[in-house]
Amino acid sequence: MRKGLSLAAATRLEHIKPSTLLRYVGSALRQDTPGGPYRAVRSDRFARELVVPSADGRAQVSAKGIEEAREYSAYANAVAHFKRTGDVSRLARFKRKTFVDVSGRRLEFVTDPAILMTLGEAGFPLDPSFYRSIAIRS
């Protein structure tokens, strides 16, 4: 819905009922007028459990809200771009930036091409499909 789909169209694509979506993520949707169309709000408080590459292999993180999830998504897309093209320019914005995994360890985003190649050869999927699950945070 953040990309302009209606509630009906979005739920049809996901093969769920509109009432199911409203029950689980209703706080992320707004209806400006009674009976009017729903729209996605700019931000939400949902936690998304993600898996991202780290120097040790995989790190599990909990992105709290859409903005934090977008940052991890941008990193995953930069890693996937590197994997496809060998171009490291999109990884530059993540140099010396850190994140905290679910166990509380502060880790640095992997931007070294040699480490990324080693992770890819070891079987870590270097693509943007890094979502583990979605959990609701109140």
Please, could you describe this protein's structure?
With 138 residues, this protein is α+β, with helices and mostly antiparallel strands. 33% of the residues lie in helices and 24% in strands. The protein has helices at residues 7-14, 18-25, 66-85, 113-121, and strands at residues 29-31, 38-40, 47-54, 57-64, 98-100, 106-108, 131-135. A three-stranded antiparallel beta sheet has the order 4-3-7. A two-stranded antiparallel sheet has the order 1-2. A hairpin with a 5-residue loop joins strand 5 and strand 6. The radius of gyration is 18 Å and the shape is elongated. The relative contact order is 0.16.
Give a quick summary of the entry.
The chain is of the alpha+beta class.
Which terms would index this structure?
138 residues; 3-stranded antiparallel sheet; alpha+beta
Radius of gyration: 18 Å
Number of helices: 4
Q: Strand order across the biggest sheet?
A: 4-3-7
| Beta-strand content estimate | 15-25%
Number of strands: 7
Which parts are unreliable, with pLDDT below 50 for 5 consecutive residues or more? Answer: 131-138
Identify the overall geometry.
elongated
- What is the share of helical residues? 25-40%
Straight-line N-to-C gap: 21 Å
Biggest beta-sheet profile: 3 strands, antiparallel
Average pLDDT confidence is 84
> What is the structural class?
alpha+beta
Written as H for each helix and E for each strand, in order along the chain, the element string is HHEEEEHEEHE
